[in-house]
Amino acid sequence: MDSMAPELLKHLLSYLPISSLRSCRLVDRTFSIIAFSLLFSHIPHWLDCNKSLQFLISIAHDAFNRPAVIWSPWATIPDVRIDAIWLQIVWKLFKGSDFHAEGRREELTAENFARLSGVVEMSEARLRTAQVCT
């Protein structure tokens, strides 16, 4: 498997049901990385307000496929503690690697996520909303 191109592996794994991808992560490091990106591929798109707006507009104009209710992903969510594991997942999706606090002066929190990641629009409220709704 080491000689197979990662693009080909990703293509093959994309045909598996989501429930099987969790088991694929146990095969080896390559499978784990590819399965992770497939399992959580929807999150960066969901967190992007422009893509969310485009999606809402597209389903609003499609009378046959539109849901009965259109809910905004930016609706107010009550104050919920943002889990460290959720911050690690979102960091890995946006930055492509794990967050390592050893070389940094501070640990990753919802309050400093936008500043440390460079994703300015990733506010604490947006992280909380995504955690609750994902």
UniProtKB/TrEMBL annotation:
InterPro entries: F-box-like_dom_sf. This is F-box domain-containing protein. It comes from Botrytis galanthina. The lineage of its organism: Eukaryota, Fungi, Dikarya, Ascomycota, Pezizomycotina.
